[in-house]
Every structure is written in structure tokens, then in C-alpha cells.
Amino acid sequence: MKTVTIQLGTLTCPSCVLKIENAVKSLDGVEKESVKVLFNSSKAKFDFDGKKLSVEDAEKAITALGYEVKKSQVKAK
Amino acid sequence: MQRFILSKKNHITLVSAILIVIGFTSELGFKNEAVAVWTLVIASVLGVMPIAIQAYQALKVKVISIDVLVTIAVIGAFFIRNFEESAIVTFLFLFGAYLEQRTLNKTRSAIKELTEMAPESALKQMPNGEFEEVDVDEVDIGDILLVKTGAKIPVDGTVLSGEGSINEASINGESLPVSKEKGGAVYAGTILDNGTLQIAADRVGEDTTFGKIIELVEEAQDSKSEAERFIDRFSKYYTPAVLLLGIVVWAFSRNLELAITILVLGCPGALVIGVPVSNVAGIGNGARHGVLLKGSEVINDFSRLDTIVFDKTGTLTVGNPSVAEKKYYGDHIDEALGYLASIERESDHPLAKAVLEEIGETTLSSVESTEVVKGGGITATVDGHRIAVGNVALMERENIALSEQAKADIASFEQSGNSLVLTAVDGELKILMGIRDQIRPGVKEDLQRLKKLGVKNLVMLSGDNQGTVDMVSRELSLTEAYGNMLPEDKSAYIKKLIDEEGQIVAFVGDGVNDSPSLALAHIGIAMGSGTDVAIETSDVVLMNSDFSRLPHALGLTKATARNMKQNIVIAVGVVLVLLSAVFFSEWMNMSIGMLVHEASILVVILNGMRLLRYKLR
Fold first, then answer.
1. Interchain CB distance below 8 Å, A14 and B232
2. How much is the ipTM here?
3. Residue B311 appears among annotated catalytic residues
4. Fold of B119-213
5. Domains in chain A, ordered, with CATH?
6. What is the pLDDT of residue B532?
7. Among B180, B189, B254, B468, fewest CB within 10 Å belongs to which?
8. How far apart are CA B383 and CA B400, in angstroms?
């Protein structure tokens, strides 16, 4: 299990948070309970299974929604 | 393609504004219907594109967002051929979003300033001995780093060689540089003002003190109170409910215009953004002023504080006893001081340290035939003189006559809560010192400020004897003060306040032995100088354990809580007024609704921004 923190472009509407949350949760290999999208610091944090999902896939899912991904940091748990 | 359109959102907004102006001038000025209709149609289509894309993306992940409502409303307006409305609504929505982003960035600026102080690169020693610049993420514990003048210290570490002075304002708010040499501890995020250092990395990244501060603040600004979670749940169902309401109205009245107007008016904008905006601005202000607030629950509790319970030693008082008053009798005082220092140097009594600090540099002599008198003091022979150092009882035992003046001094010293150290040379009293733990400078004024801000009770609990406690209490005009308290007595007292009297209680104490009380109180504030402990255990962290920031913290949380309430009132009020206007008045339409909505969002953001400038008068 790994933890990733993705720095996003500035989030402006709280409904963006909901969108990103749902999109990330729907990815295979993501620990659903761990998904946290921080509105003010514009970050997404979640735990995932490195065998099922790569960070790039998660980034792609977010950019597909129209949000900018600035930087990702992965930590082994 | 989708991303291209979204990235050009600001351009689209501008173009659509120009088209709208052209449209209206040709209609009103030149009575040219055809041109007017076409420009407005183009403006609408152009404007609705980014909104529709966002709506589509939201629907894909099963979210009915504001974009969905607006998109349907604009398509509806097309159906009834109301191109003016569709053009203006899309423009206002886009322009509003642009302004929101700009102003939101402002409210977040204070915290951003903090996170931007995080070090990004480091000069790391490579296997070949050379130093190379690497990203700070690539530094591991044990690595050897070189820090040059003007650079940020990249990690928490220990100085291996070199010396320099460091500005540690980023972690403790202290702007005076501290000089460091071999063996000294350095902290990530602090700046080397001059000199060059080689350091070994002890803690890196998020584990450094600075990393913890940043993480704390970032988590805090997005932590949610019960009320906010309620709003979140509410808005999740609110938007679909508005959509449903629109459909129902349309189904029954067959009035498409009314239905789409409801969609626009029902947008929840200001409600969902109002509270987070106050929160982030309040926490940002605190971060700038050396007060870290751990989240909006803390803000809520702190703002409604009834009672603050203080530990005495190290919190209200400095923590290490020092000589507060002294008197000399007769002559040859310098010699007497030398004898006193010579004797105290060999003692590990707590008062001895205070005496030595007071005397400072002096000539020391060798001490012979030392005798410790239990409950009295010490007698010894120094340079052939018989010296007695201790309390009044010792002086009596040694048959030392005390003058009337000395007796009066002793009485007055005792009255002010001092422990006494008398020194007699060859049977004659020479020195009288009164030693006590002194009250922190400025604490009295700070406590008064707290009272003025509406704290009802200021209570002090201490392990010290009741006499000393009463003394401090009187000087600081506290509400209540109890001595002889063990840590468990303190936590029992706090439990009683909370459970039986229903008060909201903050506890201020040192982070180590008062941790039960810190955990039990609604708000725990640790004063320990060990920054790590203070950060972990406190709900409110005062940088550098600076007591004087407490009034600012209280005032700020009050202002922030007030600000949140104002924003909720504004947001709810606007929705109520708009919805009642659409049913009961003639003048309400989509454009006005959108205008009022966007305006209300800006109002709550601007209102939140006021907190950034908050200062305790």
C-alpha cells in the first residue's frame, strides 16, 4: 500500500472537490476510505495498491476532469 | 479539445463580453435585430461550451454540479429563444468564476507564504566527496549537506563543522539570528544569515519541525467542523433537489422560463464557499502571527471560551527561580559574595543556581570543613572565616544577631513570596537574598486582555505551596488559584469544570507532565520549548511558546467564528430572497439571479478576506 499526495491547480468550487473525490474513488486499487481532497490547499491524498494502479493513471483521471496536476509525491506505507 | 476549451476559459469570457456589448448596441442603438441576435447566439454558444464540458465531466462521476444546472438553464433559454438571457447568464457565470479564483487566492495567500518557505534543494555530499545540488526529496537521514550564506537549511540536522548565524523566524517567530557551531541543532526552513555550515541530516521532509508545522496548517485549513460537514451533506442533495424542483415546476406550469430561472437562482454558490473561506483566512492570519490553530472545530471552541486554566511554573512564571531582591549589611561585601559563591558552587540545591547566576564573576576560594545542616543550610570555613549560608533558623542556631533593619527586610521579603538565603561571615549577617520564580514579563497585561475579550475565569493550578500560589494569584488578579496540586488533581479539576459546570475550558501548561489536562480540556495549549511536543499535543500552538500571542489567538478565533456566521447568514439570506422574489415579483429573471448570486459569492469571499488583516486592538 502506498500513499500519494497530488498537488492540483487551485480549486475554486467545493463541487470540484466532490468531482475529484468520486473520480479517484472509482479507480481500481484505490483505498476508498482514505481519499481526501483538500479544498483550500488544493491537494488530493489517498492510499492505493501499487500493483493495481500507477500514480500516472490517477493523475490522468484527474486531468480528464479538467483539473491541472502540478506534482505528485508517493510514499510507501 | 475539451482541455483546450477549458484552458481558454478566460479568453472566452472576454470575447463573450465583447459580443454581448456589440449585440446590445446594435439592438438598442442601431435597431439592427439580425446582428443582435446572431452576436448573442454566438456569445451564448461560446460561453456555454466550457460550462457544458464541466457539467458533462461531473455527470460522468455522478455529481450534479452547479455547471449542470447552468447548462440546462442556458439550453432552456435557447428553446424559448431568449438569447439575451442565455448570453448574459453564461458570461456572468464565467466572469464570476474568474473573480472567485482571484479572490480565493488572496484568502489563501497567508498560508501559501508559509509553505513557500519550505526548502526545495540541498547541496549533498556525493560518494566522491563533492557537493552536488539535489532536490530536497532526495536527501536521506545521515546525508552530509553543505549550507552556504543566504541559503535555507534543507533538513533538521546537527552541525558537523563551520559556524554561522541562523534566522529561525520560520519555526519560532524569533527574528534575532542565533549563532551555531559544531554540535548545534539546525532546523529546516531557517535561513543561514552568514557563515558556512556542514550538517548531518537527522530528520527530513515531513518529519522536520517545519514540515510538521506546514502539515498541521494545511490539514487545519481543510478540517471541517460539525456545521461544515452538515453543509457538505446538505449541498450534496441540494443541487439535485433544485434540478428536481425545476423539472416539477416545468411539468406543472409548462412555463419553461420560470423553470430555468429556478435552476439559476437555486445555485448554492455562497453557502458552500462561505465557511471554508473564513476558515482559511483566519488560520492564515494566525500562521502569520505565530499562532497555529488546528482546524475549525478548535476555532469554534476557542471563540466560546469560559475558563482558562493555567499551570504556574513555566507558564505564568519564568520557570527557573532567580534572585528577585537583595540587601547588603556592613562592609567587605565583595569578599562575602566571593565566599558565598565558593560554597554554593559545590551545592546542587535549586536555590544555589539562582545565587550563582546573580553573583556572576567573582574570586573563588577553597572551602573547608563543610557541614550541611538539614532544613537550614550550610556552614563552612573559607579563607579562615566561618561562613553560614541558609535560612533564618540556621542564623539562630549559629547565634547570629539580626539588626532591626535586617528583621524588617526579612519580613518584607517573605511577604512577597521569596525564599530567603542569608549569609553570615564570622557571626555577622552580610547578605540577604530573596529568591523566587518570577512572573513572565508582560503576562499581567496579557491576562487583562484575555479578560477584556470575554474570558470569565482565569484559574491557576500549581504543585507549589498555597502561599506562593496566592502571591502570584494576587499579583495577576486571577479568579481562582490552587496550590499543592498533582497532575491528576489538575485533570480532575478540569473534568469537574467540563462535566459539572458545562464550561468550555482551555488548559495552558507545559507539554510533558500536564498532558492529561491538555488532552482533557477542550483546548490544550502546550508551552514547552520543545517545539515538537508542543505541536503534537496542542490544539493551539503558540510559536516559540510566546505567551503574548494568546490574546491575539483568542481575538482571532472570535473574529473568525463571527465571520463564518455572517457568511452563512449572507448566503442563506440571498437564496431565500431570490427564491421568494421569483414567485412573488415581476422583475426577477435569470440574469439578475445570476448577478446577485455571483455578487453574493464575492461578498462572502471579501468578508472572509477581512480576517487576513485582523489585529488585536
1. yes
2. 0.77
3. yes
4. 2.70.150
5. 2-76 (3.30.70.100)
6. 66
7. B254
8. 20
